[in-house]
Design goal:
globular, single chain, alpha/beta, five-stranded mixed β-sheet
């Protein structure tokens, strides 16, 4: 199956679940070619949201990284600007959860970067839910359910770069069977 635009799967790690008050502390993405769904490009960055040592240490624990790595990470303005510069707008966004989209939109707003992506977004959870219902799995699928169904393993659950690549692989497997 060929798509009209390349597909950018993105995944985030945040300080909580509320896009209005919590912040992105890691942003990862893989760009899939519209013709063959193979990875064309990728992006991964931690995002420093504070200069306070206690906050940096707290976020480093969430990210399973060290203080110094996070301290040297870009602020949201630079991270979003790099993300936007690398991929542009002429693509279709995809993610596992619609909540991720709200976080991304808020990050663009905080970074004062115009969010000009197509309002059509591929949501892997919805696609996976419909797909697994069609194959007799009568429960709400989590990301882990989809991984188990396709016999994929996530070695490091806190690594958003690995997670976004697995999301892209689940998507490829669903599209291949459709």
């Amino acid at each position: 199956m060929k798509f009209i635009k390349d597909i950018l799967f993105f995944e985030i790690q945040t300080t909580g679940h509320d896009p209005d008050k919590d912040l992105i502390i890691q942003l990862s993405a893989v760009l899939l070619d519209k013709d063959n769904l193979l990875e064309k490009n990728n992006f991964n960055t931690f995002i420093r949201v504070s200069y306070l040592d206690s906050i940096i240490n707290e976020h480093a624990k969430i990210l399973h990284t060290d203080y110094e790595t996070l301290r040297k990470s870009p602020k949201v303005f630079d991270a979003i600007k790099s993300f936007h510069t690398k991929f542009g707008n002429d693509l279709l966004l995809a993610t596992h959860s619609s909540n991720n989209l709200w976080f991304l939109k808020n990050a663009f707003k905080k970074a004062a970067v115009t969010y000009n992506y197509d309002y059509h977004v591929i949501q892997l959870w919805t696609l996976g839910y419909i797909y697994t219902l069609n194959y007799g799995l009568n429960k709400m699928p989590t990301f882990q359910t989809l991984l188990d169904y396709f016999r994929l393993k996530q070695k490091t659950p806190y690594d958003m770069r690995e997670k976004v690549r697995l999301e892209a692989e689940v998507f490829r497997k669903i599209i291949k069977e459709v």
